[in-house]
Amino acid sequence: MNDAAPQNHDISRRSVLWTAGAAGAGVGMGALGTHSAAAAEQAARTGQPVGATAAETPAPRRQGRSMIGVPFQRRSTVRVGLIGLGNRGGSMIDLYLAVPGVRVVALCDPVKAKAESAAAKVTAAGQPAPAVYVHGDHDYEQLLQRGDIDFVHIATPWDSHFEITRAALLNGVHAGVECPASMHLDQLWELVDLSERTRRHCMQLENCCYGRNEMRVLRMAHAGKFGDLLHGAGAYIHDLRGLMFDPEYYEGPWRRLWHTRLRGDLYPTHGFGPVANYMDVNRGDRVVSIVSMGTPALGLAEYREAHMPPGDPSFKESYIESDRTISLVQTARGRVIRLEHDVSTPHPYSRINSLGGTKGLFEDYPERIYLEPDQHDDNWGDFSRYTDWDHWLWKEHANPPGGHGGMDYMLVFRLMQCMRLGLVPDFDVYDAATWSAPVPLSNLSLKEGSTPQRIPDFTRGEWHRSRPGMDSEKPPEA
Predict the structure, then answer these.
(1) Which residues, 6+ apart, have CB-to-CB distance to 429 below 8 Å?
(2) Mean pLDDT of the region 128-141
(3) For the whole model, what pTM was predicted?
(4) Cα-Cα-Cα-Cα dihedral of 417, 419, 423, 427, to 10°?
(5) What angle do helix axes 87-98 and 112-124 make, rounded to 10 degrees?
(6) C-alpha span between 349 and 211 (Å, rounded)
(7) Which of 40, 89, 172, 475 could anchor a disulfide with 155, C-beta 3.0 to 4.6 Å?
(8) Per-residue pLDDT reduced to its tens digit, 209-220
(9) 395/392 Cα distance (integer angstroms)
(10) How far apart are CA 178 and CA 136, in angstroms?
C-alpha cells in the first residue's frame, strides 16, 4: 500500500480511502493550535518563550490514564501484522523476520501480488504461512479483529494512517505507524485519547531516531558534552521529483497530490524526532510554538515541463506546496529548533541533524563536531573519534541488516525487544503527536502570514517529569 505502483484498476479501487480526506487537510486544524499575534509580540519583547505569555488553549479532558511509563506485557513471542506492503512495508517485513522471538502472523494489501510476495518471504524464513488480506481497502479491519495480533506495522499512504491506527487501538492491538501519524491536529489528540483509553501504545515509527550518528549525539548530549543545550535543527531535504512523477514508484500520484492540497512541512518527523530526543522534549522540556515561512512553489511544475510527455495527467495539477518550508520551534526552556522540508528542488540528501550548546556543536551532512576543549582555532573535529559514545544498540549490532544504514533494523529490533521483555517503549503516543504536529501547524502559520502557532501539550502537564527515552540502558536478557 506504500511506495509502489499498482495497475490502473488498483488506483481507482483504492482512491476512496487514500484521497477522500486529503482535500480538506487544512480544515479544522487550527482550533487547538492558535494564539494571538499580540501574545507572540509580547513574548518577543520580554524574551520569554511564546508559551509563557500566550493564553493556553485547554487540552481536551482526559478520558483514560496516562501512557507515560507504561510497559508492554511481557511475552515470549511477538505476533506481528503488517498493513501496507509497498516499498516501505515490503522491505520492513525482512527485518521482522530477522529478529528472534517474532512471528509474522498476518499481512494486508489490496494488491494481491504484493501480499503474496510478502507471504512467500515469511514461509521462506521457516515460519508458518501468514493469513493474507487482499479484499479491498478496508480488509485491514478483518486482520485487526483476529485476536492474535500483538503489534501492527502500518505502512500505507498518509491519508489512511489515522483511520487504520484508530482501528488497531480499538481492537486492542499496539500500533506502530509510519510518518506522520496524522495530518490533522484533532486526529492527533484522538490518538492520544485512544491510547490512554485502550491501554495500547501508539508509536511513530521514526527510524531516524535510531541512526548511529543520532544515537551517539543523544548520549553525548545527555552526558553534558555539549554543555547547556541551546539550539538544534532537523530536516527532510530529499530530491523526490523523479520519484513523485514515476508511475512505477509511488502507488498512484498520492504523494505528489499532497503538493496540490497543503502548504507546510509535510514530513517533519525525520528531522524533528532526533532533535526532540536530544532536548528531552516531553521529558523535562516541551515545544510550545512554531512559526513557518515558505518559498514559492516552482520546482515540480518546472520538472514536469522538462520531463513529462505532453498530455500527461499531471499537467492538470496546480502545485501550492512551498519548494522549501522553514519553521522555527521554541521550547518551554527557551531553546530553538529549526525544521526544513524540501522534496522538489535539486539538493543532496540531508536531514541537517544539528545540535548546539554552550560547549560546542555537532552538524551532520557531512558529519563534523566542534567541542571545547577537544577542538580549537575554529577547526572542525573528526566525529569518528567519538565512537566510544555509541549507543549500546550500535555496539551490539555493528553491521545491522536492512536499509537506511541499519537504522530500520535497530528500530524493529529494539521495539520487539521491549515487547518481549515487557519494557517501556523508547517513545510513545505523546511523542507521535508532538513530532507530527508541525504538519497542520506549519500550514496554519503560513495561512496566517507566518503567525506563530501554539503547539499543544499532548502530555497534559506531565512533560515536567524527567523520564527515560531513547537513551536506554541495555536490558538483561531473560
Answers:
(1) 67, 191, 192, 195, 196, 201, 202, 203, 458
(2) 97
(3) 0.89
(4) 90
(5) 10
(6) 15
(7) 89
(8) 999 999 999 999
(9) 5
(10) 21
